[in-house]
């Protein structure tokens, strides 16, 4: 089928587009910079450019919408413009182009506000409870997307949790960078159980959502490897595989949250190009459990991860 | 009957206003009419279109009201809606109480009983009726029951009392409340009595529930009934209501309808003393003591489900005959029966050694012949009988193992007294809970045990094993010494022997899996323990035993063969040395040795001290038994090396059934090559039967018990020597026999999880509450733990679950070699090694200095506690010690 992918210059978007090409689909990619995906046709520009989006979607059967502003800090208006307005433009264009399968990529943070999560499912998105601009605007856009689910267009929302892998410029690069600079603490000894998603599994799960949209439509699913690990063990594994020393210093989580929230405020006043070293959100992410019930996801998507955490770390090390 | 508007305020929690009604009733004595408020489900059942099979008539106590019964009112309607037999519930507010009329004058107990009769007459209540009462309402309900035999189908009660023994002070809280002056202030002028009662709930009541209880008692005038009720409590025959109470108590003793008593033992007023009195009056009653519940048991525990379940079992059409209910199962056993003391009878003229006690204080060896043992047992038995100890009375024995304990136990059994045995390993609190739960009539103990009895206020007449000076006797409340009892019994005749199906003993469980439970054995079942042991191990008069594990010292005389207890501190098995075992083997010319796992450790550790003579003696041993907790192959093999001609056995059993299966060292070695997980405990002994009730995906043992190999489930057993029931734990009894084969045998759910293999061997995989309900199905911990213990860096491992039920994630918690000093995440290399060894996907590996372990067996890991600790730790919470 013809599938349009937004945000394919991103790490996950590129992997999804490549997976679709490999499956024999005709793939169109829409983003500001070239996607670099062999075999896909690039449409360069912003998702807020309605004309461009319509052009890219013409004749498409499926859309996978990944384009978003992903950051821990930044101007709230910019988050709204890209994540909320952009999603509306993409949905409108998909409807008018007669797209029948629409996969909206969301985030587990749309439904949770920082408390420990142990084995929960995909609760409804809640913009008013979300922490930070990213989570708030992603919650709004997920609600927008699911509201468009109809007989003509099946909409599924997928919330991958902490995607990582070789060449990952987000999680892995940041962890390695912080660890190298000694800025990555293990909060409370790094014992909180965190579930993550290896890049290939995230891509195959999203492709599965496109395939199963007729069954799974109208719902949101958290997507992970289903292998929770203590966060300290994960960070150490990623650091070791990447050839840097794992973090050794430990900070009580309460102090880290307080410091993080202070730094966040200072950064808001004096925004720089760099991201703050520790935000309240990050402190919570690193010190409380985040793992999910994958039973509904696997059943609805008729999918299971193919790369284990340990295999992923091996691939990460081999990539170096 | 008139339709009056309900006085019930709106919005009370758990109350459907449509249950509330007011009925005007004329007092049969005076003709005065009073308005009664009641909760009545007749209308609700009518709307459901069902007709009731009977009525539950519920009477609250003081200072509550019919709100107390809201759960059974609600639950009975719900049950009827789902098609279960419909019971109408009428829960009254007694006059001057709740939302019923204030009559302007106090009402005596006699009036209250007659008031209730007037109400049921007015309602035209037809049978069958089952009464339900609480507190002083229990007395009123029982009074109604005694007066309405033609309507009565059963009686049920929560904490109450119909008799107070003379010479025993009434409970302190009531002494205070009934004292002149205090009475009016505490009960009427202020709501102190009401508030104190509401504060008895465990856990505490929700504020809105407390408020609902207060609703009819807002003003002093509204509370006048509370004060009058307390003032009417009959303390002695000077009180107006004493005669009525005595009449009711006598009437209750005559009742033969099914009876259920649900009890909260932590009640400062209606304590276990009153339960014991009710059990004496209603020996056929089903009794359940909810450990940890108190006076407001209706708030503390799911009494409503218990009552409805019991009604279905015992009262509803098709239920079991009322008087066949004393024990969970009627005994069906046609094997020949010989009482436990029959060998004593047989060898009473024999001067050979029966007991060789090398553990006696001072290091000297004490020899007791069969003749002397039999004589001592007879004298103590006759002395106890002539001192008034009757068949069926309970005797708590707080005597350390040794010839005196043996003599006392056989004497009690001989006269039909029920021996209550709780292990000191329970700790003082556990022991105290056990003794109070059994409510013995007599306590026989050493000074230490008697001092505990005195300090902790245990019941019972006290008999000291030693002859004490007058001052100590008085201080300990001791009425007799054992020597005096025996002297009194010299030459006296013995009472008739108890019958085989009389209760013989109550043995307490270890309490490592919840509060210790009393396990009841009849004489027939105790004798069966002896018979199965003798048959399985071919024990004859000539065998000779060395009993390094105290419980088996008691069985020597029953087996008719001499037994030697080696030189050791019998309460500390790890003091036993290899030389002491050898000396005992020599002294008793023994062919069979019993040791506990803790003793084995030290025996192996001290093997280097053995002389050639010692080794020669040990070479004569033909059978060696490790009993208690399972021991591993290496330890068993090391012990076997000391007794080269002995076949080592390690049987599997529990307090409820001491010998279920047995395996030899060779059997353990053979099982090592099997692909099965868990600990192989061998095949059933003798005619025992072992089946498996398969677990469902939620870890519940719902499968019909079957012998199919490879199926993980709860181990379900049947044996001649299986216990008869649990003591005063009707619901536990019912659960233990639930969904077991209906083949006339007695069956028991063990709470152990395991599987059978194709050769019929039983493998134990863990305890039911320790099963992890993962997304891939239930996982029992023992097998996965064994995988981890293959690592040389792991001393002991526990596998527990974190996260929600049905989605539990497996976590390994290990003791390491060398030990860590504080808990934490395992280092990466250890975590990787253990993950590689494990067949489970371990989300985390935690190391701890020591796993929480039960003291008594020094082997049972408290996995429930560990799981809660791991859950909090891995959620990112603060890390304490497990």
UniProtKB/TrEMBL annotation, chain A:
This is Nucleoside-diphosphate-sugar epimerase. One of its GO terms (molecular function) is aldehyde dehydrogenase (NAD+) activity. It holds the Pfam family Epimerase. SUPFAM superfamilies: NAD(P)-binding Rossmann-fold domains. InterPro entries: Epimerase_deHydtase, NAD(P)-bd_dom_sf, NAD(P)-dependent_oxidoreduct. Residues 3-222 form the NAD-dependent epimerase/dehydratase domain. It comes from the Bacteria. GO terms for cellular component: cytoplasm.
UniProtKB/TrEMBL annotation, chain B:
SUPFAM superfamilies: Acetyl-CoA synthetase-like (SSF56801), alpha/beta-Hydrolases (SSF53474). This is Acyl-CoA synthetase (AMP-forming)/AMP-acid ligase II. It comes from the Bacteria. Transmembrane segments: none annotated. Residues 55-302 form the AB hydrolase-1 domain. GO terms for biological process: fatty acid metabolic process. InterPro entries: AB_hydrolase_1, AB_hydrolase_fold, AMP-binding_CS, AMP-dep_synth/lig_dom, ANL_N_sf. Residues 348-726 form the AMP-dependent synthetase/ligase domain.
